[in-house]
Design a protein that fits this description.
binds zinc ion; 7 helices; eight-stranded antiparallel sheet; alpha+beta
Length: 426
């Protein structure tokens, strides 16, 4: 298992092809025994290979990249400038890692770039190499490029940290990407309100999948287990799928499902929304006099349905502006108002978490926000208590033994992640 720390990342990024481990031949300085009769020829010096890797930057040209990679090779540069595949997969691809292998005279012997362009579970590998030349031949070397395909390898990584300001800031400090931060907040969203409940000194541990191409991290997969200690109370979560025929879900270690029929918020926790807290109606100051809850967020922030249901109304209404009503069952309806855009139509079936529109300021709104309501049998209810109308999913008794085994493993991994928290606090 690898940590998500900077050191491990650097090792993985710089790692060469597993099938092609570097051979570093250390040449000691020796006094060449040169005589006029037998001059030292190039063939007497053992060749060695240098490995360097660089990240493509905005505005990079073939020449600026080769310079940073330490490649001095006019034939290679000319080929790379000309080759359509190279131009398409390297130039303008900010953030991609380019690996170069050169000989002792900085001539290019191999250039490799890896990326993922679909969900097939495979990655692409562009390889540029000089064509083999007959021994002793002189003249311009000829290069070729080819694109290969190979399976991504899933590995487990751990990360951890302590909250100092925001969840995003602490996850950034632990080198965890935004996608994991959002997923982490979603997993615990029915237990913790990440907008309002976060405290300095709260701690998180996380075990997640990473997908690697020849050892280079390409993307993160699912969170496998996580722990969040909030105000001294530990909350834990584990992804559990009894077998391929069952639907996987997140559970607390005691077997309670963390997913339910309603999401805790119609706005996904993100870098944009994390800075905003729920606000109450500016005049009435509390939801009871108002009819719902207002979420301050910039115009254009995606709005999602908190539960499965059918669109009961999608259009304009006085006061509400562009508004969507979603009927979840015989008695429960949620309402999303002041939208700048509506992405669904009446009668359409929607699934929990599906995007239905965008935040706006239509109708009676002083600024961009989402007005959100929960109605039960026609009565306005406090949407902040929506969890009480939610049905939790229970772990079937037949899966309990397998679940307990996996919990034991998760505890071990999370303990390892907790040592990273301690290190980060020092
Ligand atoms: Zn409102």
């Amino acid at each position: 298992m690898l940590t998500s720390g900077a050191t491990a990342f650097a090792v993985a990024t710089l790692g060469p092809d597993a099938s092609d481990l570097p051979v570093h031949q250390v040449l000691e300085t020796v006094t060449p025994q040169v005589t006029e009769l037998s001059p030292l020829s190039a063939a007497d010096v053992l060749p060695f290979t240098l490995y360097r890797s660089e990240t493509v930057r905005n505005g990079d040209s073939v020449d600026s990249l080769l310079t940073r990679l330490g490649v001095a090779d006019t034939a290679a540069a000319a080929f790379l400038r000309r080759d359509a595949t190279v131009r398409q997969q390297i130039l303008g691809r900010t953030g991609r890692t380019i690996q170069a292998e050169t000989d002792d005279r900085n001539a290019l012997s191999k250039l490799t770039v890896r990326w993922v362009d679909d969900d097939s579970g495979n990655f692409k590998r562009l390889v540029v190499t000089p064509e083999a030349q007959p021994a002793g031949s002189v003249g311009t070397r000829v290069f070729t490029s080819r694109i290969e395909s190979a399976p991504l390898v899933a590995t487990e990584r751990i990360g951890g940290g302590i909250i100092t300001s925001s969840l995003f800031a602490s996850m950034d400090a632990a080198n965890l990407p935004d996608r994991l931060t959002t997923e982490f907040a979603e997993i615990f969203s029915n237990k913790i309100d990440f907008h309002n409940d976060l405290r300095k000194g709260d701690r998180f541990s996380i075990v997640y999948e990473a997908l690697e191409a020849d050892g280079e991290p390409m993307s993160t997969g699912r969170i496998l287990s996580a722990e969040f200690v909030n105000k001294g109370v530990a909350h834990n979560a584990m992804w559990f799928q009894a077998d391929a025929s069952q639907k996987g879900a997140y559970y607390a270690f005691n077997g309670d499902s963390l997913q339910s029929s309603y999401l805790s918020s119609p706005l996904q926790f993100s870098r944009v929304t994390s800075g905003f807290s729920r606000r109450f109606h500016p005049i009435q100051k509390q939801w009871k006099a108002h009819t719902g809850v207002d979420f301050g967020a910039p115009t254009g922030t995606p709005v999602r349905t908190v539960g499965d249901g059918v669109v009961d109304f999608a259009g304009r209404q006085t006061g509400y502006g562009n508004v969507i009503f979603i009927k979840h069952n015989a008695t429960q309806t949620t309402v999303y108002a002041h939208l700048s855009k509506i992405n669904v139509s009446k009668g359409q079936k929607v699934a929990q978490g599906q995007n239905i529109g965008l935040v706006g300021a239509t109708g009676w709104a002083t600024g961009p926000h989402l007005h959100f309501e929960l109605r039960v049998s026609g009565q306005f209810k406090d949407p902040l208590n929506i969890a009480q109308y939610s049905e939790g999913r229970k772990l079937p008794a037949s899966q309990r033994a397998g679940f307990e085994r996996q919990v034991a493993l998760s505890r071990i991994n999370l303990n390892a992640a907790a040592t990273i928290q301690q290190a980060s606090a020092q």
